[in-house]
Queue: 4 jobs
Job 1
Amino acid sequence: MKDKTIKLLNKKGLRLDGRKLDELRSVKLEVGILPNADGSAYIEHGKNKIIAGAFGPREMHPKHLQRADRMVLRCRYHMAPFSVPERKSPAPSRRENEISKVIRDSLLPSLFVENYPRTGVDLYIEVLQADGGTRCASITAASLALADAGLPMRDIVVACAAGKVNGKIALDLMDTEDKVGDADVPVAYMPNLNAITLLQMDGKLSTKEFEEAVKMAIEGCKKISNIQKEALQTKYKVIKQEEVEE
Amino acid sequence: MSSLLTRVKLKQIEQSIEKGQRLDKRTLSDYRDFKIEQGVIEKAEGSARILLGKTEILVGVKIETGKPFPDTPDNGVLTVNAELVPLASAKFEPGPPGEQAIELARVVDRGIRESGAVDTAKLCIESGKKVFVVFVDIYVLNHDGNLIDAAALASISALINAKMPNYEIVDDKIVIKQGYTPLPMKDHPVTVTIGKINDKLIVDPGLDEEDVMDSRISMAFTEDGNVCAVQKGGAGYFTLEQTIEATKLAQSTVESLRKKLKW
């Protein structure tokens, strides 16, 4: 299943796309890109292109899903049919269902759900192009969309993966590395609270390597976190400039 | 932590755990007693039933022939599916598998797949055309907490129990011969779930504890002690230190479970 013949590291120890082992792909973030959503964000993480839109807090429908003592977060991670080499059926797959759930679990610790009883927040994530690590990029964008919607938060959640390629622990795997590599460890993190809110792993790692991968992923998260904050601030800086021009 | 009842329960469970004991008299790192019975369904190629506390799960393995995936023409196919049967809990409803069932199936699948437990390379009949397809169907019959561990244990037990029909190929056609051979296996992963209640880690959370715990982490280990699958769940978080502690706790629990398993 896993083709070990593909070399993921060259003689200089550089990866297929020329990155070093602990180097992130380029991350670009933009906040407030959807006019109709209460909050939104767009992320380009390597070749991943993902939009997240948040609606709410608003009245929860259907009503039987309302909770008298808290807000309900609903989350839908969905991949566009054209986002991957072979067309993906638009019907939600089991993988998408599971990812929707773990994304929701990764964002809930950041929200004060008890402050918005009976309401619901819908979070829609559309993967326009996928290139490995979409769940992490989705969380990074989705948390920004929630912040953009004006929800008070304990911290902005940021996510990044680490893994193992050709026997070495590496940061932020791209598609081929994820598929051919030995392991993938996606991590979501709240930097100010030292809180891991998503942790998954597939592949094979010793417990020591696993620990190393989690630590490396957290370092990646911290770097992306700075880009996140900058993106959120940029939205308001731009508005200010426009006002001055008028 | 929605209803008043669970808030009262939370308080009880918290106070008890603070003293290092749980409501069912276990210590924080105790695993509940479990019993596994193999070959309980004669019509299935393999089966196993587990009782973990009062959690009861039946796993059936069916083996059929089918087409391989285009990207792995020489490998058999493994699929894992889970049904939270409505008779297992008042909270389960009929209908197609929901998020909880899908997560359960996928976490169990990941442990089996990533450990390479089933030797799918030996399940190829004709490259790119015909392979054996192994269906693992998880049937939750009673929910008393920690479905992930119970389902993973029962699944691997059912796979060990599974027998493949003998066959030969005559004029491009498969002819089933008499007798069976065991399903080729390479590893026996064991999964352990750690729950977190008020910054205390507990092994093998029961249903009451699941209702009040803020998050869990499930880890599958191969026979040689490597981690092969991890899943964090629940609306809470783990700090890095807690994650490392949970890894150690899970690993030592897996080691002690292996001593009890008679495969």
Job 2
Amino acid sequence: MAFGRAGGPGEAAAGRAELTHPAPQALESAVTTMAGADGSERMELARARETIAEQAAEIERLRATLAVAATAGVIGSPVTHARLLEMIVETGVHVIGARAGALFLLDEARSELVFEVAVGGRAEQAKRFRVPLGHGIAGIVAVSGQAMAISDAAGDPRLAADIAQGVGYLPETVLCVPLFYGNRTIGALELLDKHDGRTFDAADMQSLSLFANQAAVALELSRTYRAALRFGERADPPEDTAADDALELAELVHEIAQQGESERAACRTLLRGFADYLRAREAPASGLARLMG
Amino acid sequence: MTTPPERPAWSLVPDSLPRVDAIPLVDEITPDWAWGGSDGEGVRVAVIDSGVDAGHPAVGGVDGYVALGGPDGSELSEEPHEDVFGHGTACAGIIRSLAPRCELHSVRVLGPSLTGRGPVFARGVQWAVENGMRVCNLSLGSTRRDLFEPLHELADVAYFRNVVLVTAANNVPVPSAPSLYASVISVAAHEIGDPFRLYYNPAPPVEFGAPGIDVRVAWKGGTWITATGNSFAAPHVAGLVAKILGKHPGLTVPHLKVILRAVAANVRRAA
């Protein structure tokens, strides 16, 4: 959250927003208790209200987009996953109004950030690459879990070297927010160079952070489904690991089941879809086996 | 001969309690009373972060180092270390700008390896609480649910030992520990550049606002950047707390919250 004019996008933006973000009413009461509030402060307050309303509408639109994207990721082909990544960056770039953007995912095992997709600049030429942590803004955002913006990235080229490689130019301003899924950080979303030449402000940080939260859910659902598909296409695992795998699967389902009703519903949809896929795949084979027997 | 009656373990013996200083009425607390003339001398401040670059002109030396690592955070080194990212140096620079003579300790919990990230962080906080730190700046947190309980306990231990945990609020409504606990001072960024301008938020868990938007901060390798984030708001409060404790060493965490609220810019004062 942020104080002052940036405020929060309001309760409509996120069901759990009250946890860390003061509602606009609370912000208002904080401002109106200011000693000797004059005309300019009242105007400031009116502007804050407008910004909050605009942001709430924006976030609602994003939610709808992301809901569609999430569904597409779940029921679509692997190509749709790549498209989902692009959509996330495109939506962020469009809504905040930036010249370019990029998405990084965290590879926990190798302690690296994997550059997945970029939009803007020479993004179409960008190849997937890895960045060791400790370089660039995305690294510190991913490990600290704190959003960050810089207004003079060109002043220290090392800071934006990761993203410069992805889009083919060195940005002036960067806004980077973490992607959270469940209780862990899975990556970072970066935007470069705001359109109007101004620096990214607290309201941009707030909006992109909330958007990234929704995007991470869509992304993780899509990734899980892809992994499930790949598993389904492989040969049966050796006997000795099958029991361990089954146990791990049961633990995962148990963990998800404890998260809440919507998480249980999402899990059920995913598993049912996968089970249906397996049944459909196996049916002709068993028919053939009967014929041959 | 009669034996004295046994006292319950938690009872107080009034005559043997130490005397403590009086505190003025809340309305009478001014910034000048709170920190006027103080440079934070003698106050131990821990920057629990990515390390601190002692050679950066904004930092002007580090008084102690601890780097934690390993899968469970139990590997500990007190050798001088560098800042892996620049983030810790930024926080240290802000603290020093407000409390130039505080005793600064770098507790490194963030590094280029992600192994044990959560446990290392929790161990870092534990080290600071158990090793005489008075103020801890936490411009980071953990979203790992299995760490919430140990971090909550640690935050309470810190509170009772008068160790002030100043934490950066998270921009996302994702539960992040320990910034959501009542025993810490949770801070978000506001856009006014005056480092002494604080705001009190009547809707916790984020209780205070401090400068954190387009702030000129020290960074890795002796550089400076202009950065935005709650990460840079928290050290402003940590620095002010160090100043206050330099002048009033006996204050506790609840006193400090009352004082910070009393000097906040959005408090309606009696005419």
Job 3
Amino acid sequence: MAAEQSLQGYIQHHLTNAKMCSTDSGIAFNKACSEAGFWAWNIDTLAWSIGLGLVFLWIFKGAANKATTGVPGKWQCFIEMVVEFVDSNVKDTFHGKSRLIAPLALTIFVWVFLMNLMDLIPVDFLPALAGQVGVLSGAVESSHDVYMKIVPTTDINLTLALGLGVFALIVFYSIKVKGVMGFIKELTLHPFSSNNMLVQILFIPVNFLLEFVTLIAKPISLALRLFGNLYAGELIFILIAAIGLFQLPLHFVWAVFHILVIVLQAFIFMMLTIVYLSMASTDSH
Amino acid sequence: MDINATLIGELVAFIVFVWFCMKFVWPPLNGAIEARQKKIEDGLAASDKAEKDLELARQKAADQLKEAKAQAAEIIDQAKKRATQIVDEETSRGHEERENIIAQGHSEIEAERNRAKEELRKQVASLAVIGAEKILEREINEAAHGDIVEKLVAEL
């Protein structure tokens, strides 16, 4: 914690993304983007998440290239354990045939896990390093002007993007399995239904309201659950880091606990994705 | 934490990652696992089959051994029987021959004895005649009293 900063400023600094946007006078960064509205890019989130995604693909593609059907090496065994774990979860929950679900689940699980894992790197290491680089390269005057959030899952944009991706698949599978009319019927004819035509017509708006909220709640809850857990965890790391020298035992305890949280959140996101898609692709009513 | 264009960027990244994983990562890994599972399954089945075959072969060998033993015992039995038979046959043949030889000997001896008897009888007859001649001196005519002498000789 830099001495010249106030506690509030310190926390604020840690919770701000590095932004990039194009303004009338060219490309601008951070505070200059406060007026940019939607068309600003969180470059730290993008860089870390895409970098970690590439790490995931690089690790697994490397293992896949060397995969042998004979006696596997230890590394291949480890990768296969992860693959098998995801595959068994998918097979237990999703009772259809799909070439997409299992790779989707694997990508979500490992990618989210890797992004969550960044939370275990002490909160000041990489931001401070980035600040020093910024100052030394002459790009900024003070290291305080360099923003760097290294845990992409503490950015609502990323978790919401994942949620929306899953949402699109839910809609896609619903329509693919039940047809457009089937999907509309599912949204309008349940949970209240009646044999009386008139009563049924009266029920439709009520049903639609309920079912639509249920549908929309899926991606939102996915996004907010992951975001909330990681954001809160990160915030507590920052608060622990703010208390000075005695942070070490506390930090250790919280980090150990957080190991559980990051794996669990990645698993929950994967599992719920499978469950939602399984529900979407079966005629439950 | 406001929502901005990052959302779009992340959505695109997410789609690309999933697509890449589906296309190039999942199939070879899962394929390798499934191929190995198949291999192990086949191997286990083959080992089971081999075990069964071995058991069968063992049983067959035991059966054959038993059969061979029985056959050998039978052959030995037969041979023994044959041997006894031969011995019996030879013995009886020997006996027969001996009987024959003995019988032949007996008959020869009989004939010899008969001949000797005849000879003896003739000599005794002539002796008797000579004796009688000497006793009766000239009175007895050999021709006239031949039948008496014959009677005498027959009584010897």
Job 4
Amino acid sequence: MCEEIHNHTHHDGNRLIVEPQQSLLSNNDHLSGHIRKRLDSLGIRGINLMGSPGSGKTALLETLIDQYPGDDLAELAVLEGDLATNRDADRILAKGVKAQQITTGSACHLSASLVAEALIGVSLEGVKTLFIENVGNLVCPSKFALGTHMNLVAVSIPEGDDKPIKYPVMIRVADVVVLTKADLLPHFDFNLERCRQEIHEINHHAQVLVTSAKKGDGISELWQALLK
Amino acid sequence: MHEFSIVSSLLDLVEADVRKHEAKAATRIVVRIGEMSGVVAELLTEAFHVCKRGTLAEQAELVVEKQEVLISCGCGYKGPIKDRRFICPVCGTADVEATAGEEMILQQLEMEVE
């Protein structure tokens, strides 16, 4: 006999059945909500930058720093997720922007807890935009909210125009998809229109921008999108 | 392989529920995994069998229910999509709302009590 005690809880002999209907990532989601509140209270816009290894995420950040439309580079801060090295953070520090490395060991994505921990080590005073460069990976980081306001996904021209349709879960969470290394377009069989169309078919909310960090193209448009 | 992180998060939720209900252990866990949740059901099951050791779910069975993607369109269409493109098969617009298939949910938990 199954006796209902209250909503969604059933007893059956020595078995108790509950129906939590809860996201498996609710702990991460909860913590990311706290990070978001903290960023909001400090007036900081957080941007989660994701993309494959080698898609040009760090080069994109370097060029964004070079073309920062604000007055003072102290308004920028970067958290750099990487498996093992400090190289990416060193590249950002060399640009005169504060950066904190998060080495994840073997974890293939950042989580809200790693970000919360890293934020303890960064002075956020005066910061207006916080970039979090995720671990290079086009699958795993997509589901782990970090408390940021915007998801920026980098896909490079050499990766091929079929990347978005092959990795739709990442494209689904993107607010802006940046097609990087556009200076290489003449050398690759990359169908820009088809790629744009497929991104639209996966996520019609996503804005698509084409950039070249090497030539500095498309970066001011990207800043406009980020500060919108 | 973020399935390990997800299983570890699942086990945290399960253990918290077992303690909350003062049960002895979890015996059956039902999760619903969307086909576009980014999680592979088979890898999730493998990770579960590795990670459950030493937890209150050590003896538990994991049941993974797969959920296909469903959309709702302004034209009135409600149903599945084709080729993982979020396009309405009736009117062709991309301006559709996903109503299922991207979630990963702890649906039901069965526990052993005194």
